[in-house]
Design brief:
The protein is an all-beta fold and about 100 residues long. The protein has a single domain, classed as Jelly Rolls. Helices cover about 0% and strands about 60% of the residues.
Amino acid sequence: MASMQYDVKSVQLSADGQAISYRTRVKAIYGVSGASLGSVKFYDGTSTSGDLLINIDTPAGTGNAFWMMVPGEGVLFRNAVYVDVTNITGVTIYYG
């Protein structure tokens, strides 16, 4: 019988920075776009020098929302999660 994970958490960012400081799995991503095309990049580590594991191009148009559920158990970040954002209002990361 499969078990369900109950300790899923979330964190919100509106600028580049370390979202999570330890090993975790990113399970879903929700964000709100800025006026121009943008991107959200997720690196394994504490800066952009880590491995790029998720790269999302975001739609143009202030207030447009984007949502991505990651299949299975999520994407494993072995060290930490660093997020680099371009032209977005904010992003919420669900992890556990």
